[in-house]
Design brief:
single chain, about 240 residues, alpha+beta, 10-stranded antiparallel beta sheet, 6 helices, 10 strands
Length: about 240
Amino acid sequence: MSSAYDVALKYGYESPVSFSRAFANIHGITPNEAKQSGVELKAYPKISFQISIKGEKEMNYRIETKEAFDVFGIETIASLSGEDGFVSPAELWRQSHQNGDYKRLFNASGDLPKFISQDLCKIHGVENYRKTEGNTFPYMLCSFVSDSSKTDGYKIQHIPSQTYAIFPSEKFKWDEDFMEVLRNLQKSFYSEWLPTANYERIAGANFEIYGGDREYGYIELWFPVKQINITKSHN
């Protein structure tokens, strides 16, 4: 039987995590859940291309290379298949707001470093920054380390220099549209941009970067990528 890593490589993904996320974006369930009897999946016919012009909004993104930096914060190990005993990213955010961890991390954050926009929030999300066992991935509520940060008692993670495909959202109301905006950005990257771009998703930390005020916010998703080298063959 093929391992999760073998399956991911077979279909062009760098890791089981990236394959599982792309699979879930299309089918709405994880690969492990798809193995259960009676589960409905989506099938697609052979691709054919037609050119049409629509008045839809263009896809906004940018490619940026960031120098190495450090983040610190509160970590959970989450399960891709939703197994019991793991705390999901959404649950970590909820718990941290309720028990005061979010406020304590905010107070410890210090100033924002100069290499990011100064109108961003002080707390963000990062995942896949290190390898974990089995069908799991690491996720951290994090702040960027700066000279004024107070990191004692928190996990510190070094992020090496990396090129990112960055997908920003429009402003939205936090309480009403957050999950829809997040899903749409993920879909834009995995289902629309990545299949046609001259880039590939690679292993490494990807970020949920938040900005705005108490009522209205915006998100930037940072995906680690590298440009695909296309060599022409000569007869």
